[in-house]
Specification:
With about 100 residues, this protein is an alpha+beta fold. The protein has one domain. It contains 1 helix and 4 strands, in the order βββαβ. A 4-stranded mixed β-sheet has the order 3-2-1-4, covered by helices on one side. The protein is globular.
């Protein structure tokens, strides 16, 4: 997961809003999105928040790295506004994040 811009699953930064008209706060999380070959949304996880997981510490770290890379690459969207057929925008100031993890 992660690396798929046109087709397949990847992580997407989403937000939900809390509060009243006078004071609205945003909570940012990651969900998984599935894109068709043209990069249009076909589906997503039902829940707006995903927890990273893995079958080993190394796999967990790899998942976290992919999540971080996807979060850095794509503009956040309002979770409730996501709909089939929409596209996502890359961040203009996106740059690849170097991995801070390495096996010794």
């Amino acid at each position: 997961m992660g690396k798929n811009e046109n087709g397949g699953w990847r992580y997407q930064t989403v937000y939900i809003e809390h509060g009243t008209d006078d004071e609205i706060t945003r909570e940012y999380t990651l969900c998984e999105v599935y894109l068709d070959k043209d990069g249009k949304l076909e589906g997503s996880t039902e829940n707006h928040a995903m927890s990273p997981m893995g079958d080993s510490v190394e796999e967990l770290i790899g998942t976290l790295q992919i999540m971080l890379e996807d979060a850095a690459k794509w503009e956040p969207v309002k979770f409730e506004a996501m709909e089939v057929g929409m596209t996502f925008r890359k961040k203009e100031n996106y740059r690849c994040i170097d991995s801070a993890y390495s096996e010794k």
